[in-house]
Design a protein that fits this description.
The chain has 177 residues and is mostly helical. The chain has one domain. The chain is 74% helix and 0% strand.
Length: 177
């Protein structure tokens, strides 16, 4: 009876491993700086979202198990965002509102990237990145193009990675930065 209470949730552990991998990729210093994304809370959030969209898109191709794991990665990601907001001394009353805004931002970006990623349309993806990710602090067209090339190459690498390896928690393959 008590064994169920203390049983580890393997799917959540795998989701945490995948999320940690995508965060490491998103925090690569090569994305940030004078000719890159602003190294700020918003810039890091946007890079995490880009990597999460790529990973979750691939996971959903893994049938019901993949869709369940994609949802688990999403849940881990937003639990982490919630904890990060609380660590930054965001008041308890405003955390929920900020998480809601972040969730809406995630879904908006995911929708904007879907068609360009599916069609391999670099120009449309660069435009979506410019419009959605960095409307607050505009990036040069070359940065958006570079991110679009990176995202499309990462999508190809993820598609080549066996879905079984991702479902088992193997780190996702992203393009070199």
């Amino acid at each position: 009876m008590f064994s169920r209470l203390f049983k580890k949730d393997r799917r959540k552990d795998i989701a945490r491993q995948l999320y940690d991998s995508l965060v490491r990729a998103a925090r690569s210093p090569q994305f940030y700086g004078d000719d890159g994304v602003e190294d700020s809370v918003d810039g890091r959030f946007d890079m995490i979202v880009l990597h999460a969209v790529l990973l979750m898109r691939r996971l959903r191709e893994g049938g019901e198990s993949g869709r369940d794991l994609s949802q688990a990665v999403f849940d881990v990601m937003f639990d982490d965002m919630d904890a990060a907001l609380r660590e930054m001394a965001t008041g308890d009353l405003s955390v929920g509102k900020k998480i809601k805004i972040m969730g809406e931002a995630f879904y908006g970006r995911a929708k904007a990237y879907e068609t360009p990623l599916n069609e391999g349309d670099q120009a449309a993806l660069a435009e979506a990145i410019e419009r959605n990710l960095f409307e607050e602090s505009p990036l040069s067209a070359s940065v958006c193009e570079r991110l679009a090339v990176y995202a499309l190459e990462s999508a190809r690498l993820l598609e080549a990675q066996p879905i079984e390896s991702l479902l088992a928690g193997e780190a996702p393959q992203y393009a070199p930065v």
